Here is the input.
Amino acid sequence: MITEQKLPESALLIFLDIYSLKNKNNLDNPYKEFFTLVESAGLEVIGSIMGKQNLPSTSAFINSGKILEIKSLVKELKPDLVIINHALSASQARNLEKIFKVRVIDKTELILDIFAARASSHIGKLQVELAQLNHLSTRLIRGWTHLERQKGGIGLRGPGETQLETDRRLIGQRIKTLKSKLNKAYKQRQINTYARKKGRSKIVSLVGYTNAGKTSLFNLLTNSDQHAADQLFATLDSVTRKNHDPKLGSILFSDTVGFISDLPTELIASFKATLDELLSADLLLHVIDIADEDYKEKEYEVNKILKSIGIKEIPILRVMNKCDMKEIENPSLNNASDICWISVKDQTGIVELRRSIDGILSGGIYEGWISIESRLGKVRSDLYNMGCIKEEKSSSNGTILAFVNIGQDQLNRLLDNEGVSIESNDKIELN
Here is the structure.
């Protein structure tokens, strides 16, 4: 039996540069991001129209002259839908659909659709559905030409209730149910986070603009195989894994959803609890695509969202990824304490990144000699497994002298063992 393959929907893109909506942090190439966003949704772009306006039209967002141009192209190309790069009000979307005689969606609906297609975990699906319903509750514009019609219905509505009122009530009930389910899921996550903290595990969360390479770095640090793709919002569900490098000790890395400029408020609200998990992190790795021409603006957008959820005291390490694709203008920045230059692709700078993570989490790195009594064989063995011992000597009384590279907090716990102490270099040279 031959199954018919479903073809992707065709889309006509409308990219408008609205001067009144500009700010100093606008991307240098916003069309590229918009186009990539559409491609990530699996749509076939069959045409595009660009234009400039001082102000958006109140009734249809687009000025009348540009509407005529778009209407003519819609008639010629016959797209399945028209996509505009701004957020539309319910009335504006409704008016444009009447004019073009085709479905019209804005940037918000496009992102919501991508999220709906990519969410895989139970919590992720609930968050996306909540965002969709919050968005839908303000419009209810399509498919209801009979909204004024009154009709009773068993188990659905009371007498005299309109279809519109019914839909709003049912959506409101579903939103309430989703919020209740999400609150239970978040409480369970908080319990899990507390357990990790109690178990002395450090938590490092990867944040950044979408498609900056967070998941690829996450896979490298944890030896995982999470789906990573060169597309926007490849990762939606937060994933936590233990690091596979024993030198770093008990550290848990968490991969998070990527950010984007003008992230829909519905998504921010729905994913707020997930973003709030960042508040329990001991360190944030802000992954930045240094090869992106708009990386400074995108870095600003991420910092703005982090600030909005209350990230203040948590240390942030800026990880400049894809440095293999761009010449670093100022190599001296490699020496800065809050920045690392890496390439996940060829694993450049990963050793330095691990060292920086260890240094921040452990309060610094101790590099020097320690003495370990011969009876503490397990302590010595653990240090070898962690890769901390660089050189070793034996003293005349059988004590092991080891030159170690170890985090300060790990060293402090090590010194809690009776029979372990720091040795001076002068004393070692005498031996």
